[in-house]
Design goal:
The longest helix has 33 residues, at 3-35. The chain is rod-shaped. It has one helix spanning 3-35. By secondary structure, the chain is mainly α. Helix content is 51%, strand content 0%.
Length: 65
């Protein structure tokens, strides 16, 4: 291989490397912005009812005493 061919191969490799780095940086900036969008609000309020305990005891004492 001649020096001119080696130089051309190195230039192509450098361009590919620069392109790959540019795409990686673009993805690192754009993807988090796309994923950070807040979810759509629910179509209506959802009412949740928590049934009482059958034993009638209050909440468990978790103080550790």
């Amino acid at each position: 291989m001649s020096d001119a061919e080696n130089l051309e191969i190195k230039k192509r490799a450098r361009r590919r490397l620069v392109g790959a780095v540019a795409l990686a940086l673009l993805a690192a900036v754009v993807l988090p912005m796309m994923m950070d969008q807040e979810p759509r609000p629910a179509s209506g309020d959802i009412q949740i009812t928590i049934p009482r305990s059958r034993s009638g005891a209050g909440p468990a004492d978790r103080s550790g005493a």
